[in-house]
Give the backbone structure.
Amino acid sequence: MNVTQLSLFLENKPGHLQSALKVLAEEGINIMTLTIAEVADFGIVRMIVNKPQKALEALRQHKFVCSPTDVLAIELDDKPGSLLRALEIFSKRNLNIEYMYAFTEKRGDRAVMIFKFADIEAAKKALLEEGFNVVKKIDLIGE
Amino acid sequence: MFNKQYEAMEVKKLKELQLERLKWSLKHAYNNVPYYRQSFDKAKFNPDKFSSLDDLKHVPFLMKQAMRDSYPFGLFAVPMEKVIRIHSSSGTTGNATVVGYTKNDIEVWAEVMARTIAAAGGSEKDVVQVAYGYGLFTGGLGLHYGAEKLGATVIPISGGNTERQLMLIKDFGTTMLACTPSYAINMADFAEKKMNFDFKKTKLRAGVFGAEPWTESMRKEIESRMGIDAYDIYGLSEVIGPGVSCECSEKSGLHVFEDHFYVEVIDPETGEVLPEGEKGEIVYTSLTKEACPVIRYRSRDITRIYRDACKCGRTLIKMEKVTGRSDDMLIIRGVNVFPMQIEAVLMEVEGTEPHYQIIVDRKGALDDVEIMVEVNEKIFTDELGALKGLAERIEQRIRSALGISAKITLVEPSTLQRSEGKAKRVIDKRQL
């Protein structure tokens, strides 16, 4: 049920993201979604790809520092206030979000948000109890 | 000349004096410092049989590590009640070298510093602004006592607060400035950019600069921007502090105060003594020091020594401006830094052997240090805050352990330059 996200360290300089993406392109890996968190000197690229294991190996082979991270993909109604309600529940359950970002594609008429929780297992249990639809990995990457 | 009797002594007589003093110094070290006793015994060297300067080559070297291992007072040759002053090198607790001075040592130090300031044209008529740091560092107090001994007027302002430095140069009629050469340039920058301050309208006419390596081009820059004569002064706390050697009016080579310090130049690889004029590592032996005698102390400074007929009238041997070091020590804003120390901090913070590179540059007049650290799988975390925190923790540890501020830059793996498989640890871009 956990989704594998790849986290990649890059220096914040022209050409660096490009060379990492070139590795993925050459391996025929499709990026489903990608987000970057950065400070002045460096950034962390977080992405969900269709073949995470293959992508990880290829990137490491090319001397990139890359690690797999488990995240949760959660379906939300694509309506005003639905993310807010989700966050209200997280906070009530004392679930800390380390970071989050939106998935690029909708599933039917619902939006998908990616969440990184400090404690993924506790978060998953709580979310299921609260009636959230946690999207399975295979549903998301279409394998 | 402050002390013509010694500074212009006939060379033959000077050598006799050296021999006589050296005999005393060797016995003093042997009889009072267990370290020297053991090391002399091990080398089968008997100080009682010492009879010519040439015999010194049989005496074992004193390495910096032995001084560190003796922390704090292990190399003191007198009881503490005879010690009236302690100084210590910058560095971490474990790496600091501590030196002590008896009343007589302080007197000798003041004497050689008075000679140093006099060699730069100073006299009792001068107003000397001491902008070296006061404290455990030998710079401030060394200059202070020397200037007082000379009878000059001392302004003990210490380092920093550039605006005030300039104000006092103007208001107190400072004629001589003593500080690190990089701080002098910093002062000149500040004067031009922030204060519209014109050195030509002040009484400043000379400066004695040292505690870090500097070049002829820096000398020209300081001289033209401040409108002064800039003299190089040299010393090291292990030997006494500033006052080991100094330039005279000729500004070509530094006269070593040979009546107190005996110098040899050796091949740093083999330890063989080299003939005068050849370049190598300079080694110091104290001739009169009571509290902390140093016998064949390996400075790691690369230079050559030679005796010429100097126009200033001094017969003392000269050493060239120090041009490099036989180890990988860096001097950053006057602080001695070894790449090993930085490596130790990285090991401690990261818990893994890091690939790193130290880049030293001069931004304006001040040394600027950047340490590039390669990120690896072990230290990489998906959380931006944690990675940033890691860099900050390294910065803090380097500040507290080494006393320098360095910018930590995290870089991708395998991006740092390696030569023949071995990492190039230091890139010094300073034009020294």
Summary: The radius of gyration of chain B is 23 Å.
